[in-house]
Write a structure and sequence with these properties.
This protein is of the alpha/beta class. The chain is built from 9 helices and 14 strands. The chain folds into 2 domains: 116 residues, Rossmann fold; 147 residues, Succinyl-CoA synthetase domains (Rossmann fold). It has a 7-stranded mixed beta sheet, sandwiched between helices. It has a 7-stranded mixed beta sheet with strand order 9-8-11-10-12-13-14, sandwiched between helices. The relative contact order is 0.12.
């Protein structure tokens, strides 16, 4: 079992013929992902061979869905074309759009998210500026390494790509149901709360790791949601305990002002609702290990 991405998911890649798209399409195929085609209007009708697997290139997401039954798209297009690619995916009515692209203008993200809302949020958007989503042993949509962890019963949601990978590796012997990298931009599609709700509803997920970072109030809002709606144990980590105030650290959304958005404030909010928060990723993994061994 997994959330949003399963072994039955049929994946297309917008930008499959580009350098990043082709590299990661090859990786996703090697991980066992059911990639069924790509989208590039200029190369429609052609095909690309990846280590013996031939994939067709379609003119549009709608065409790809019609011909292959695709229900997931992974978007590897340059920032200036990302808004158009996401809007196209929304218009086609695809279930899940994973937006890997970094450097998407916040205005563009706001525009395609508002458009998605206007269409009833038919399409789940993960990202932008994210590593994607992986359900170990089943499917991998994005750039998350496929061989660093095993299948298990922990759910992981994270703003940070590299910390996603580290947590997966630290708990590789216990394993994960699904790992979701939601991205660290000021505006993103899927939030911590969305993932927490999905993991709470997933019978194959027993506990949840939530990785946040300084800036904004997403983690505080997640704490309120956990208090009201989550019965499974949650362990947290907040990146940025040593970050100086007023500085943007890595992600565009990781900026704090005064006491708002600090790691300490987020830690306090989470601990107030029973979430154990580690000071380091390794300590966070140890806290989760204790929970799983006790269960």
């Amino acid at each position: 079992m997994a959330i949003w991405l399963t072994k039955d998911s049929k994946v297309i890649v917008q930008g499959m013929t580009g350098s990043e798209g082709s590299k990661h399409t090859r990786r996703m195929l090697a991980a066992g992902t059911n990639v069924v085609g790509g989208v590039n209007p200029r190369k429609a009708g052609q095909s690309v061979v990846f280590d013996g697997t031939e994939l067709p290139v379609f003119a549009s997401v709608a065409d790809a869905m019609k011909e292959t039954g695709a229900d997931v798209t992974v978007i590897f297009v340059p920032p200036q074309f990302t808004k158009g690619a996401v809007v196209e995916a929304i218009d086609a009515g695809i279930d899940l759009a994973v937006v890997i692209t970094e450097g998407v203008p916040v205005h563009d993200t706001a525009a395609f998210w508002a458009y998605n809302v206007s269409k009833g949020e038919r399409t789940r958007i993960i990202g932008p500026n994210c590593p994607g989503i992986a359900s170990p042993g089943a499917s991998n949509a994005g750039i998350i390494p496929a061989d660093i962890t095993g299948t298990g019963r922990i759910g992981l949601v994270s703003k940070s790509g590299t910390l996603t990978y580290q947590m997966m590796y630290e708990l590789r012997d216990i394993g994960f149901s699904t790992c979701v990298g939601i991205g660290g931009d000021p505006i993103i599609g899927t939030t911590h709360i969305d993932a927490l709700a999905a993991f709470e509803a997933d019978p194959e997920t027993d506990a949840i790791v939530m990785i946040g970072e300084i800036g904004g109030d997403a983690e505080e809002r997640a704490a309120e949601f956990i208090k009201a709606n989550v019965t499974k144990p949650v362990v947290g980590y907040i990146a940025g305990f040593t970050a100086p105030p007023g500085k943007t650290m890595g992600h565009a959304g990781a900026i704090i002002s005064g006491s708002a958005g600090t790691a300490e404030a987020k830690q306090a909010a989470l601990e107030a609702v029973g979430v154990k928060v580690g000071k380091t990723p390794t300590e966070t993994a140890r806290l989760m290990r204790e929970i799983m061994s006790a269960g």
